[in-house]
Amino acid sequence: MLTNSLLRLPAEWEAQSAVLLAWPHADTDWAERLAEVETTYTALIAAIARFQIAIVCVADDAVQARATDLLGAAAADLRRIRFVQIAYDDTWLRDSGPITLSDGKHFQLTDFRFTGWGGKFEASLDDQLVQGLIQREVFVPTAHRRIDWALEGGGIESDGAGTILTTWKCLSQRHPQQSRADMEQILLDGLEAQRVLWLDNGYLEGDDTDAHIDTLARFAPDNAIVYQDCDDRDDPHYAELNAMAEELAALRTRDGEPYRLHALPWPQPILDQGRRLAASYANYLIVNGAVLIPAYGDAADDEAARIIGLAHPGRRIVQVPCRPLIWQNGSLHCVTMQLPKGVVA
Question: What is the CATH code of the structural domain delimited by 16-340?
Fold first, then answer.
């Protein structure tokens, strides 16, 4: 652990070394629809490799060969794709990957405990992922701080300037015996932050993360927030997401000004054997020079891309088909973790 430093959690729109992912295989929860979800992973990794390095975890030689074949057939830039063989339970690396703090020259791989979203799923291998990547020399020599407190990367947003945005629903589920003040202090200390902003409202039906912030509201440059809106009064999400929008409107920057808000359109319900899936446009990924945006085959896809583009000016907008991903209740931000510039070996 570094001390007396200027470590901070960079904003996602800052310069990156790479994006970390894990390829699905037959021993993950994707087994039932493996070929279908591989189409999304192929498109996603090919899109990342247009702009920077993608580091792809694979379980063994066979999984690596399969991924290489599919990516090659899709004309992905294989020179920008690195494979790392390592064991993992599943592929949600937003939540099991490192939360990397940086001061521009030094780094800290902050490694919170991963419990499979409050014990819902087996997570013992995923909880060892950061240590395993360090042993495989994925990163430059850097500090590694293990924090024995459950937190997932999808549960927090950083503006890069000391403000963390999170949801009460998620963290109170993980730590029901702790007060908000106690949890806030752990976040401030663990993330080298100056303040925490909480949302008490907001959820998506079908989401088993207990309202991760990255499905609901995202920081954007110049004191902006992009959020998932719902304008359908007959939809069960309407009251909750409108209450969340009111909370966002009441938040203030460190200078006491309101945030500029960008409301995302509401997709039509997507059902799978009667189960509603958690389709959120807020679950996008920022990479060097571009924003990768989930597309669900919905009429609102293009409008969502336009709005996110307005919030992140000067970046290419790339839509990635994500309907197969939401079968397992997450989208493209959930399966990726960006790594700040300089941290990758």
Answer: 3.75.10.10
